[in-house]
Amino acid sequence: MKRDLTIVPGAPLLEVHGLTLVAPARGLTLVDDLSFGIAAGEFLAVVGESGSGKTLAARAVLGLLPPGVERRAGRIVLDTQDLTQASPAQLRAQRGARIGMVFQEPMVSLNPALTIGAQMDEGLCLHTRLSGAQRRERCLAMLERIQIRDPARCLKAYPHEFSGGMRQRIMLASVMLLAPRLLIADEPTTALDTLTQREVLDLMVELAREQGTAVLLITHNLGLVARYAQRALVMEKGRVVEQGTTRQVLFAPRSDYTRSLVDALPRRSAEPVATPGGPALLEVRGLRVTYPGPRKGLFGRHAPQRALDGVDLALRAGETVAVVGGSGSGKTTLGRAMLRLAASDAGEIRFRGEDVRRAAPAALHGFRLACQLVFQDPYSSLDPRQRVGAIIEEPLRLLGDLDAAARRTRADAMLAEVGLAGFGARFPHELSGGQRQRVAIARALVRRPALVVADEPVSALDMTIQAQVLRLLKALQRQHGFACLFISHDLAAVEQIADRVVVMQAGRIVEEGSRDRVFDAPQHDYTRALLAATPAFAATGEAEVPAS
Amino acid sequence: MKLRANALIGGVLVAAMLAMAIAAALWTPYDPLAIDLASKLKAPSTGHWWGTDEFGRDVLSRAMAGAATSGLIAAVTVLLAVALGITIGVVAGFLRGGVDRTLMAVNDALLAFPGILLAMGMMVVLGASRWGVVFALGLAYAPTVARVVRGAVLSLREKEYVEASRMIGNGEWTTMRRHVLPHCIAPVAVLATSMFGWVLLAESALSFLGLGVAPPAPTWGNMLSGARPYLQSAVWLGVAPGLCIALTLLGINLLGDALRDRLDPRMVR
Question: How many CB pairs under 8 A join A and B?
């Protein structure tokens, strides 16, 4: 018998050959001649930016293509069975039982109307012949394995009773319960903060190793690839640009595109941090914000929850202060309370020495003119009915001493500064995510504010775009000298842009210091945990890479 | 392209209806009120293009005169309902709290009655006249608009670009006018076009009950209800006003859709 010598020993579990996906209505080729294989128990990362076709390729494996997308060519072979020839019923038998999938958004991928137990049971019920008691036992064992407190109670609980990280663990547990041969994880931790991300992925790797499951991780985060994957595949615009061991792809990239991805990783800038002296531009002292907590019982009172508890912070002109912390640490609340977008119940907010916390809304006009906010999501922070030019001109209307022509000139100049000259007549939906965030930055800066609060301004953007936007923000700051409060859970971005770092945990500041001090010699345990969980790798090849 | 064709058909139909109404003010083939018992219930012929009714009145002349009356009543009623509804909905949705609860409680109480019943009650107080119909139906349909607008405002006010507008320094009402209100137009436009149809029919029901436009003045509604006893013997009596109503509604719906798409920059290519 003749054997194909190109197949690696221990023939691949999944082989994709020349997969081509098209959207005929739009005349687009979304995935072009994609070929790859995964061996049993292997961890393969598919890396690419939005629109690279990585998610579609994974969905094609499951036979779950969105409407309007068709497979034009290619074979998908799982354990000698060609899935492209399988009937829908045969495909259904594969899903869950042999191929498991974990989605990006844990908040919406569990059905809120069903208990955890019912949802975990569903897969077992479909794919096994176990009795009810046996299934329950398996679920309990799995929940115990992923270290959920009180598994019996968890089975009866509903998804909303758990945090995002817990939900993703539960999702993972219910997928791994069926011991699939292949686990497809589509950006499973993008919606989670750094610490939780590490917990979930560590758990995923452990479970996969125990069950000998191969993992196909779809991600845009090169740090995660470096930490977890054995092999990596880089996609750009539907094509594979590079494929190989993680070490080779990340540390000795052969294609220009991969190199640009690696170069886009945020890294500490060589120049020293700014340490401006002088009086504080904006200062908060003992700031406290409380939210009504969950109601206890039908008639119970809301027990207040403290989102911010006695926070002291001062910003000086021209410096960038980064606020980092996990989700729920109060960093976003701090930014909003400082700008008086959220109400605070105690403490002081002094802007240029004047108390603005207690000022009446009408007296805030000057404060509003001097402080601006850049939102996280550039898709929802721009009015879809306004043209870009009008969006940027709008803040100028409140200055009063500018006529329409002067406003126009200044808006155009600002657009040019963010690299979007000539985009004034477009609508936001005609722009890419990065372009939209540039518009949002232009809107914030057009009035030459003294302070800009940037709330996770790059976390919704692709890697290469993130790097561009961060560089732009820094360049504009150098030029215009505004103070910037940079709120982020991404320590890598913070390291690139911040002069001073403030670490928050549970509504309090636990550590504060210059960038170099905090990153090189963290004092607080929480800061150390955050730093350890940050999936970063040095392009020099120092990072730990799993043996392939 | 498909969109343009729809808009074109809608425009032609609405223009035809307007032409009929305007022509009626200047000239009709016969006096729409002139009774000619000698030629009653005549089928369409060269003398009477759309036939005559049970009193020998010319159906075409009456349909033309009816176009003016019905169209005016429906248009003004819809405008009134939309204006009232938007005001109530925006105030409730934007101020929230006690104002919202009070306004919506009244609104829901009004919604609990069928619109036509509410209008009948008001007509009894107001007396039968065409402006009575406009006022009663306008009030009766406003709560529906208010509900839709309030819902839209409640979801819109949480959008980040609304917050961005506050952050720029815009006052609440400027924010409202520039960034919230324009987004309410699409659902309201859709609602208003279907409401035009409801009003035409409600007006005929009121007329039928003797609460609307008093006979013998013709409206499409009362022509349609007057044709009921003769549906088998003189089909044209029902067909003429029925077709007028149906084609006008079709035209207005098509125009409404085109308008909505036109107003949404994401739909414009």
Answer: 56
